[in-house]
Write a structure and sequence with these properties.
By secondary structure, the chain is of the alpha+beta class. The protein contains five helices and five strands. Strands 1, 2, 3, 4 and 5 form a five-stranded mixed beta sheet that branches. The longest helix has about 40 residues.
Length: about 200
């Protein structure tokens, strides 16, 4: 029996080695997304924060440029023109200022201004009020001749009442003979020319 047992064992072993049912195949491993580590997430947050900071800086630069441009336009529009003694005609060197004012007003059709005429303190109050009025009107007429609707320009005369500088010498008189330009917003003055 020993031989028959041995033959039986060999037969079973041979069958197992030659065939039988095959083992099931294992599925191929599928690629998986890399798992974000704490370092990766922190790097993404830092990059996002840097992008937000740069965008905020760029927006601040643009806003500052816009403010500077607006201030420049305001300075141009409110710059003072001066007059010779006892004159109410625009001087050649002030025509360029009025040309820039006209260009700004043409580019901003809702803009309204007030021109105030001033005189030095020589002459009577009545004469200086009339001279200030003529000075304001000559500036308005210049702007109208350069395409600005006269309804957008108000005029007033202060004569000698509001001097730009105190003094009784030619330097003070020269600064007090002037037209000032102001923005007019809803029946009020919004900005006054520099003196």
């Amino acid at each position: 029996m020993r031989a028959s047992n041995l033959v039986l064992l060999l037969a079973v072993a041979a069958m197992a080695a030659c065939g039988g049912s095959p083992e099931p195949e294992q599925p191929a491993p599928q690629p998986t997304a890399p798992v974000a580590t704490t370092d990766d997430a922190a790097a993404r947050r830092a990059a996002d924060e840097e992008a937000r900071r740069r965008a905020a800086e760029e927006e601040a630069r643009r806003a500052e440029a816009a403010r500077a441009a607006a201030a420049g336009l305001m300075g141009e529009l409110t710059s003072v023109i001066n007059f010779d003694y006892n004159e109410a005609s625009v001087r050649a060197n002030d025509q360029a200022k009025l040309d820039r004012k006209a260009a700004i007003m043409q580019a901003n059709p809702n803009l309204r201004i007030r021109v105030s005429g001033h005189a030095d303190d020589r002459g009577s109050d009545e004469y200086n009020l009339a001279l200030g009025h003529r000075r304001a009107l000559v500036a308005k007429r210049y702007l109208v001749e350069h395409g600005i609707d006269g309804a957008r320009i108000a005029t007033v005369s202060f004569g000698e009442e509001h001097p730009a500088v105190d003094g009784h010498d030619e330097a003070a008189y020269a600064q007090n003979r002037r037209d000032e330009f102001e923005f007019v917003v809803a029946n009020s003055v919004a900005a006054r020319g520099s003196r």
